[in-house]
Amino acid sequence: MWKYCVVAVLSAYISVAVWSQVQRSESNTMEIELRILKLGMTPSEVTDALSGVQIIKSQPNSWMTSTKSGLSTMAFKNGKLSFIQRAWTSESNRDTAEALFYAVSSLNENGYSACRIKSDSQISPTLEMQRVQVDCGGRAIIVFHSKVEGQWQEDVYEQLRNDR
Fold first, then answer.
1. Do residues 76 and 43 lie in contact, with contact meaning Cβ atoms separated by under 8 Å?
2. Helix 96-109 to helix 2-19 angle, to the nearest 10 degrees?
3. What is the reported pLDDT for 90?
4. Model-level pTM?
């Protein structure tokens, strides 16, 4: 039931984006920990940009940061930053609608309005997950409603990727 509500809310926000005149910023950038990352940066440029932020290099081409504002992940392809994902959290870290509002606002600010919405779910012995994805080409919002080890949680992520 919740995913139908999320889809309806997302549809309304995206419809507003079509009619809004927004100031378009550079659509291949994303803010991580108050620092701007841009697709195409080299690993050393990303390291410099994230100076003072702990970077966990789980694999040579897959990095993450974990801070109070959530988990961010980055991936490199052919020595260039090709994927960035950041978590959107609310002030209370419990308000999914507020996090969703800020994620959709980011789409608006970056000039995205032609988006596809889809949903899916997965059930296994250890995980129950429902997902809504708003895909706008190079930028997307992913909303998860998942039950892990008996606890329900909601997460909102924004992704920026270079599919080339």
1. yes
2. 30
3. 62
4. 0.76
